[in-house]
Design goal:
Layout lengths: L5 E2 L3 H9 L4 H9 L2 E9 L2 E9 L5 E9 L2 E9 L2 H10 L3
Parallel strand pairs: 1-5
Antiparallel strand pairs: 2-3, 3-4, 4-5
């Protein structure tokens, strides 16, 4: 997946992430602060990646997203569990 600096937000994905306690700003921070791709899948023919990254406040998140055009479209996300957080820090050299 190439580098994208734009995000595809609408009411649907904002509300879905809010239901998981996440804001668009936190999700965007994951991509700005460096992240790992931990998984790839396809749903209804659309590629979906799972990224693990950190917010400015140090919260490690898991974010499922796709790319539409030149924009990252976040689909869902959640707080990373301890094992995933540890893996993130090990892989990122922190």
């Amino acid at each position: 997946m190439g580098s994208c600096d734009q995000f595809d937000w609408d009411d649907h994905n904002r509300e879905h992430l809010a239901a998981h306690g996440l804001s668009p700003a936190e999700v965007e921070q994951v991509f700005a602060n460096g992240y790992l791709h931990s998984d790839f899948d396809s749903e209804a023919g659309e590629p979906r990646w799972t990224a693990v990254g950190i917010t400015n406040s140090g919260q490690v998140l898991v974010v499922v997203h796709t790319v539409r055009g030149e924009a990252i479209r976040p689909i869902t996300g959640w707080d990373a569990d301890d094992e995933t957080s540890q893996l993130y820090f090990e892989q990122m050299g922190q």
